[in-house]
């Protein structure tokens, strides 16, 4: 049914972004569309990928649910420990940064997010989240990559997206024509091109190449080299002299998000930033590891949101975090949890509609021991594309997905 | 291009390579063979190879040098000494040393292949002795029988820790190892059900570690009946592994990875192209060596569909550069550089290992790879034939800068150097000739070329 529907939609789509936008949404979206056509839209989306499968059930906790305690005799978070959101739901005690943001009206928790017939392989499920395609369909581009390809203006000088991290580049950013720079630390992102002038010039001339090679693989390597050199120069320039009164925690994620804040402050025209935090595959001895990860995550996100607000970019910056799946409701005998299905997603920034979005999924009705989704992740993507980036979502996502109420109108 | 593979006749593809007037056995093809099967070769090795038949060179590479026992013993002693530091980063430097100096490079390449296949990271397995023991296990079976390799890796302490098997108990099985055994080690995603994962996890309950060794704990083992991949039974003592290995998909899955290792990164080959190799693997009782030999000696391997069709891994790039120019270096620095560029030995990124292909390349690694090469040739500790690079190239009797650049292209590049780039490199060589760093600077510049990324 999924495929049929997509094929059907494909016959309708293909029109310009403005047509599909105009057909559906009024108000500020029309503004967004207008701004887009004028090239004036400047909102920024920061994606935080939680790699390994975050245990959503111990992140956003139904602390009064008997089923929860029964399924997790060792791992359940005690009711008097959770950071309460309401009478039934609370945050993991280590997620203090999130509860602070919630109080400040800058955090939305979208509950019960997943997709039909969930896959429990890390790599397959991550590919689904990255590409919005199931195995067997061509998956050379990611959802953000398709957005980048479509929205790219030839006059843009800055990279339209930047991946800050030394992992391999996420498939979500893979595009047909756009090359997204990736770097771990700004210090290492420089070409050592020799101290002497002539060698430097020769290397630059060589690396920037002449005509594009006809071979696609060589062409890919050539354009990657050229864009790497350009991005490296621009970023070195941008990162000079950054000052912030916000104290970031000492963690890998905080360092990366701080780099993102610096790049935003430097006035780069980049609209998408992507960072990752790995280690969520907690099959064994989960409690301490998961607490440390949530502390790192929420602390870094909180500092980042504060920092961009301080520099006056709070209204333009939105952060989204996701993981490839949640974890099984019942704990295993290693005091850990195995691969599961639906889980919550976090949105942070001053433009979110703060609080819980959607119901916490029931623990009475499970799918083979796993939480059922009620919100498709592509609905969240559609919301961000349409209502935040100001772009038609259907061609990017390969179908029409209903937006959710997670952003301020 | 992507669908072009469908048109390859599988019978032709795996026939022994027959040189023709269009595709003659020459320095280019010999360099290609050494680049893929070894870690490159010196000018002298290539000269010697073109005087023999390709099949005979392939055979020697696969059989390996018989006279490596002394070297092997020295390496083992060195590794054991390094363990005193208890640090797997030391082990990475040790392995780079082995790769640089071994007379049997295919064995190291295949050990690295299995390290990426049965990926286990010292990030989680903090006991360096376990990591070394696993490395030795992988080397022991690198070109041998896949079946005991899977059995033993399933009982390997480093693996038991990495995929949490060590805490898999019957009360509530931990599914981690069972899933990855089918998804990543034997069958491939989509060739098993969630039910199979849960049932297979029961088979491995009670497979624990005691005093650093595998131990079967019958009190934590679920000895009840299980149903795995359509068969029901108790599946005791690794019978479930034997059963997975009898699945037709397993041989296809393994030869598919060998294909990608030796022929090309992309596109994915159709099953009919892999089937002759899968049959070969089954007929040879799961011996990996004969399949590798068949691939390396095949028509397809020496065709345009394989030549220059792979993106170099960081190890290929650095170890290949050094071995092609009789080089030695500070292997601690090099191991750290490999890690910077995404290939930390003993530290694969996750249980899927290194994706390879285009995934090696991003803006950071593009600059990082060029910087790695620049550091290698610029470092005083790097010696080429016991001298500087310029001295080494001069000693090969290359004559002028033109000949030097052409020799470097043959040794270091998998595809032809475009004429304008060749001119620039000759210019760099010439301009700096009297500073005695002309060739070194030319290699530094060469490393920024897109052509240098290909193997």
Can you describe this structure?
With about 400 residues, chain A is of the alpha/beta class. Chain A has 13 helices and twelve strands. In chain A, the strands form two sheets. In chain A, strands 1, 5, 6, 7, 8, 9, 10, 11 and 12 form a nine-stranded mixed sheet that branches. In chain A, strands 2-4-3 form a three-stranded antiparallel sheet. In chain A, a hairpin with a 4-residue loop joins strand 3 and strand 4. Chain B has about 450 residues and is mainly α. Chain B contains 23 helices and six strands. In chain B, the strands form three sheets. In chain B, strands 1-2 form a two-stranded antiparallel sheet. In chain B, helix 4 runs antiparallel to helix 16 (about 290-295), helix 6 crosses helix 18 (about 330-340) and helix 14 packs across helix 15 (about 270-285). The longest helix of chain B is centred in the last third of the chain and has 16 residues, at about 365-380. Chain B is globular. At the A-B interface, helix 6, strand 7, helix 8 and helix 9 of A face helix 11, helix 19, helix 22 and helix 23 of B.
Total number of strands of chain A: 12
Query: Largest protein interface?
Result: A-B, 64 and 63 residues
Distance between the termini of chain B: 19 Å
The major β-sheet of chain B equals: 2 strands, antiparallel
Give the number of helices of chain B. Answer: 23
Which range does the strand content of chain B fall in? under 5%
Low-confidence stretches of chain A: 1-40
Shape of chain A: globular
Outline type of chain B: globular
Q: Low-confidence parts of chain B lasting 5 or more residues at pLDDT below 50?
A: none
Write the SSE topology.
The complex is a heterodimer of chains A (409) and B (455).
Chain A: H1 2-12, H2 17-24, H3 28-37, E1 44-51, E2 60-62, H4 66-71, E3 83-84, E4 89-91, H5 96-103, E5 107-114, H6 122-131, H7 143-151, E6 161-164, E7 182-183, H8 197-208, H9 216-238, H10 252-265, E8 272-278, H11 286-310, E9 317-323, E10 343-348, E11 355-357, E12 375-376, H12 377-389, H13 393-397
Parallel strand pairs in A: 1-8, 1-9, 5-11, 5-12, 6-7, 6-8
Antiparallel strand pairs in A: 2-4, 3-4, 5-10, 9-10
Chain B: H1 10-13, H2 27-37, H3 43-50, H4 54-63, H5 69-82, H6 88-101, H7 105-117, H8 128-140, H9 146-153, H10 157-162, H11 176-186, H12 194-203, E1 207-210, E2 213-216, E3 226-228, E4 231-233, H13 239-245, H14 248-262, H15 271-283, H16 288-296, H17 314-324, E5 327-328, H18 331-340, H19 363-378, E6 383-384, H20 389-395, H21 401-412, H22 419-431, H23 438-446
Antiparallel strand pairs in B: 1-2, 3-4, 5-6
